[in-house]
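Weekly puzzle thread! Below is a chain. First person to post its structure in token form gets bragging rights.
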Amino acid sequence: MNLLHRSALLALVLLSAAAPAVRAQYIPPPPARPFPGLINEKLRADDVYMSAWDIGVNVRIREEIKDDAGFTDAGSNWDFSKRPQDDNNNRYTLTRVMPRGGYTAKWFNFLVEGRSSYSLGDERYNPTAPGKALTERDGPIDFHQAYIFMGNHKEFPLSLKIGRQELSYGDQRILGAFRWNNNARTFDAAKVRWQNALFGVDMFTGGLVYNDHNNANKSNSQDRFSGAYFNFPTLAKNEIVEAYLLARNVSRGIATDNWTGVAAPFRFPGAQDLYTAGFRIKSKPLAYDAWDYGVELMHQFGNRTAVFPATTVAAALAAPRLKQDAWALVLQGGYTWTELAWQPRLGLVYSYGSGDKNSADGKSGTFQNLFATTHLHYGYMDLNSLQNLHDLRFVYTVKPKANISLAAELHYQFLDRTTDFWYNVGGVPRNFTGAAAGSGKGYRINPSYRNELGTELDLIAGWTFKPYAQIEAGAAHYFRGEYIRQSLAAVGSKDASYVYVQLTLNL
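Winning reply:
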């Protein structure tokens, strides 16, 4: 049975099961009761004083099959391609083991969490393609988190968290832990939090942790990330209200760094002094009975390297800076049939990230989505980031039982401007057949092409069959649009498909 037939079969199963109703964004089902993990539960049952400790292991195994958009050495330029030499199919097994140990006292706590990540049978491990073999490998084991937290917000409004840690805020559209990725994302950072009844703010500064296979992972001093994230609990009765200002400052010297084997998630960044201001408002659960809504608006300013990514170190050092003026907008709403047993929910989400009309003018209008958990929002096939993109998303979810979740999603996607690139999930521009023309300060890409990228159908199911064990499966198909057809007209194109099965154990 080929991948398309398997996708169709899973679609029929999910849709027939979900027929009586719906839900909005897919959320993996929780266990029937709060579950701390097998080790913690055993230790706490034997000794009540062990409740201050958190000792456990998270294990995740995921099998992925990708046809015609396969994350292979062919590169994303040749996704959907019919060229015989383009091997854009891939099948591999991802494994991730994350042991942890932590302790919580009244005025402090600490956590040490390791991570060992491997990919088996992955064509990205081709040793003749330096660097690509390191994309999804970070072994044998390294520190994922190692921090100490000092404070107690029940008794005092100020706290400090310092060390290697995840940074995750809002819907993770601009800053998230990206735990779907086999390596996930952490920062070496210091964070001060102030919280009282009127407002709260997290202020942090640090650096993204780069993965260095067989060596200690570390952050790069030439890539700094800082921010302030505010919440206003009393500003609106029925809404969550948040605002933020984020700064990423990368020096030009990062282009000359010679860290053999070191890779940031997906790529080294270009030099930039980029600032993102945002505002987010979202209805609280059941605040408007069956209805819910959310709005998030982001503006970027500052500057960034004109040629991105640069093809040589010399080009990166010589490239001029573009003045950044970019926007992103998210509008979402949903309705939940709370009176029905399956709690169906229907949701509609519109996501927009601006593109550039003509970077030869010394300005950039391409939104940069920083450290987002992109997988949550723009399709399970991970073909897009929120850059030069319109994404219209319909989501239908149900919960036949408390420990089972089903979802069907449909994404209609098109470019904001065809004078800008189509950017992949890592924010790297696609160029397909090399039609881009350099202008010295930027690019103009296929301005005569239609902007329709295509439509993605995603079907997802999750089952927490034991308090410590969950299985999740999904199938997706991308129906290519006119932009892809036109871009690959010289070699021919075809649709793409994706299937995965994942087992997660909380030991």
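Puzzle host: Confirmed. Bonus trivia for everyone else. Residues 360 and 440 are 7 Å apart (CA to CA).
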